[in-house]
Design brief:
By secondary structure, the chain is mainly beta. Helix content is 0%, strand content 51%.
Length: 116
């Protein structure tokens, strides 16, 4: 599966962005997720959505970010509201096939920069 992330950009604190990740083929049964990596930091989990639409969020994302998917478009989204400068990072989408434990497929990343 190839993943193509987009939607990053330069915004002000308090603004919003919606990231998109398009898969090269059907991924309706896959768990899809967003991760991010800030400069000088480890990559961290942000949110995931299973094939049954069960979602999970990191504490940093709860209440501000929403993950969703449109299986008709093989696309997963990350709606990010009330952005903060500490949200600045490269955001990656990833997919995990049913019955597996690791995210094996990764997109190329999209940069989000939040200015104060």
């Amino acid at each position: 599966v190839q993943l193509q992330a987009s939607g990053g950009g330069f915004v002000q604190a308090g603004d919003f962005l919606r990231l998109s990740c398009v898969a090269s083929r059907r991924t309706s049964g896959y768990t899809m997720a967003w991760f991010r990596q800030a400069p000088g930091k480890e990559r961290e989990f942000i949110a995931s959505i299973s094939g049954w639409l069960s979602t999970s969020y990191a504490d940093s994302a709860k209440g501000r970010f929403t993950i969703s998917r449109d299986n008709t478009k093989n696309t997963v989204y990350l709606q990010m509201n009330s952005l903060k400068p500490e949200d600045t990072a490269v955001y990656y989408c990833a997919s995990r096939a049913p019955g597996t434990v690791q995210f094996d497929y990764w997109g190329q990343g999209t940069l989000v920069t939040v200015s104060s």
